[in-house]
Amino acid sequence: MAERKIVLTDEELEDLTSRQKKYYKEAEEAFKRNMSYLIFEERFLSLDKTCPLYEGMSLRTQALQMPLYKVIEEMWLELAVNQGVMKRS
To answer: In the chain, what is the straight-line distance between the N-terminal and C-terminal CA atoms, in Å?
Structure first.
């Protein structure tokens, strides 16, 4: 199966803070290096309130609807599939 391209659009990137842009680029690089899905999850989907995913959010659940969260979550899922931990349905 061909690897899917998982990226934010230019418009979505423009909406990010500089800290979130850096965070996204770090996640993108980790994804390209095929980082362990467990380490990726710990590093980029942290529930820590200082995590850039939650910047400007009063509730963490708000982040679940953000394109940044969705793309990073998709990267994590793709890593898990590529590493044989789960299968896409």
So the answer is: 13
